[in-house]
Amino acid sequence: MKVYSTKQRKSLSDYLLSHRDEEMTAAEIAAALRGEGISLSAVYRNLASLEEEGLVQRITRAGDRKIFFRFSGAEECREHIHLRCRKCGKTFHMDAGTTDLLDETVAENCGFKMDRAETVINGVCGDCEKAEQTSKK
Amino acid sequence: MKVYSTKQRKSLSDYLLSHRDEEMTAAEIAAALRGEGISLSAVYRNLASLEEEGLVQRITRAGDRKIFFRFSGAEECREHIHLRCRKCGKTFHMDAGTTDLLDETVAENCGFKMDRAETVINGVCGDCEKAEQTSKK
DNA sequence: CTAGTTGCAAAGAGTTTGCATGGCG
DNA sequence: CGCCATGCAAACTCTTTGCAACTAG
């Protein structure tokens, strides 16, 4: 099946590209794009096709029953493992060296070939960790 | 708020315990427990409270728009990183040594404190990797 | 011109909630 | 007994789908 390049698909791609690594719901994306003339259904349909291409992932958050989408299509993003802080919600890129190291370690010790683009490590980032330490009397 | 120990909550806990690391939808769980006398709403309510306690996580799969729940409450499970194969869907436990190693590596190189129980590395397991190699002419 | 895409509205699926009843402590 | 939990059904929210109109190639 051929894929046409429509105005709507382009708005969506542009938007996702400029918000890479952010987690957004379909409704939020549609709202942000209101004015660009793209309907909610088109957002869903295009997200689904991007997901099939592996450029977008679905994410869930503990306690929050919504589904978020995250764009990781840029080459730059696909080469890193993502570190997601559960305190501040930000996502960081693991540096290339560490990523390679982990990749090799897991492959050697576990015989498991990890998928960088789709792996997200949850935890607490340095800043929040510090904040946590100091606030705890 | 106090928590009562009811027959339904017990059935659910027992079921989850004996299916740790499996990914199941609320409907599947309710279906498996039909006969135990637990309603779908009770399943949802109890899963939500288990999620708040951090014993259960919500999972999404690429291409599949359902939400799956995974029990990882057992101590044993919380100490490992989980490796999930996107081919066969199975989840494996990373051995303790490698888990510690990764944990330290990420902490030192990235200043990030990972959360073992909530981290799932996606990829392809050894068996599926082999199968893939041979099938590809 | 043909086939993929869009918007809208309706249909569906999954999840949550209100309320009366039942059960734990 | 008091309060939390359960069932059932209604209410909702989010997502998908049907269809006619539209547009890229």
Number of DSSP-assigned strands of chain A: 7
Distance between the termini of chain A: 61 Å
**Radius of gyration of CA atoms of chain A, rounded to a whole number:** 17 Å
Shape of chain A: globular
For the record, the count of structural domains of chain A works out to: 2
Largest sheet of chain A: 3 strands, antiparallel
**CATH-derived architecture of the largest domain in chain A:** Orthogonal Bundle
Number of helices of chain A: 6
Helix percentage of chain A: 40-55%
The proportion of strand residues of chain A reads 15-25%
- Arrangement of strands in the largest sheet of chain A: 1-3-2
Quaternary organisation of the protein chains: homodimer
- Find the CATH topology of the largest domain in chain A: Arc Repressor Mutant, subunit A
Text of the CATH class of the largest domain in chain A: Mainly Alpha
Order of helices and strands of chain A: HEHHEEHEEHEEH
Largest interface: A-B, 41 and 41 residues
Summarize the structure.
The structure is a homodimer of 137-residue chains. With 137 residues, chain A is of the alpha+beta class.
Structure, explained:
- 2 copies of one chain form a homodimer.
- Chain A has 137 residues and is α+β, with helices and mostly antiparallel strands.
- The first copy, chain A, folds into 2 domains: 1-74, Arc Repressor Mutant, subunit A; 79-137, Ferric-uptake regulator, C-terminal dimerisarion domain (Dna Ligase, domain 1).
- Chain A has 6 helices and 7 strands.
- In chain A, strands 1-3-2 form a 3-stranded antiparallel β-sheet. In chain A, strands 5-4-7 form a 3-stranded mixed β-sheet.
- Chain A is globular and about 45 Å long.
- The mean pLDDT of chain A is 85.
- Strand 6 (113-114) of chain A pairs antiparallel with strand 7 of chain B, so a sheet runs across the interface.
- The structure holds a DNA duplex (25 and 25 nucleotides).
